[in-house]
Amino acid sequence: MFQLDDKFLQSVGLGDLPEDQKQAFLQHTYETLEERVGTRLAESLSEAQLEEFEGFATHNEEKINAWLAEHVPNYSEEEDYKQLAASAPDNVPPLVVAAEFASVRWLGINSPNYREVVADELNKLRDEIVASKDNIAAATDGEQSTEQ
Q1: What pLDDT digit, counting tens, does each position of 50-84 carry?
Q2: Which of 46, 55, 75, 128 is the most exposed place for a label (fewest CB within 10 A)?
Q3: Is residue 100 predicted with pLDDT exceeding 70?
Q4: Which distant-in-sequence residues (6+ apart) come within 8 Å of 68 by Cβ?
Q5: 3-class state of residue 53 by DSSP
Q6: Is residue 41 packed enough to be buried (19+ CB in 10 Å), middle (13-18) or exposed (0-12)?
Q7: CB–CB of 34/42 below 8 Å?
Q8: Crossing angle for the helix pair 94-110 and 61-71, to the nearest 10 degrees
């Protein structure tokens, strides 16, 4: 779908951020994107749907397993799941991988336009970052010089 990585930083003009700032900036960008997408998607969902989805976000094992058993009983054999599990860092518990897989499948069923929403919000966020890149770079330079 999309990657928030060095290539993204290069595309917004922040490829020269200090290494210790890159991950923090990418994490902040991811969290901002996640919040904006969630807000937009929530506008079109019922309370019951929001509650069901919350089970994935909070890693509620009972809710995740019940949903997967009903909707994707052989999920561990699905290619999408295998790729997700293979790309997860070693310290990520299997429940978290299952929750991520279930949430993507759930969104495909209950909010089929979510990929477009993600792309739209990412483009808006990218434009904001590009417009503010000089201030962002200056702020990270200031943080680095005060740490030395």
Answers
A1: 999 999 999 999 999 999 999 999 999 999 999 99
A2: 46
A3: yes
A4: 75, 98, 101, 102
A5: helix
A6: buried
A7: no
A8: 50
Which residues have a Cβ under 8 Å from the Cβ of 50 and sit 6 or more positions away?
42
Q: What is the mean pLDDT of the chain?
A: 91
Which two three-digit tokens encode residue 17?
């951020």
Q: How far apart are CA 107 and CA 53, in angstroms?
A: 9
Averaged pLDDT, 2-11: 87
Percent of the chain with pLDDT over 70: 93
Q: Please, which residues have CB within 8 angstroms of residue 55's CB and are 6 or more apart in sequence?
A: 62, 63, 64, 67
Question: In Å, how far are 66, 111, 122, 148 from 7, measured between CA atoms?
Answer: 38, 29, 14, 28
- Inter-helix orientation angle 94-110/79-87, to 10°: 130
pLDDT tens-digit readout, 109-146? 999 999 999 999 999 999 999 999 989 888 876 655 55
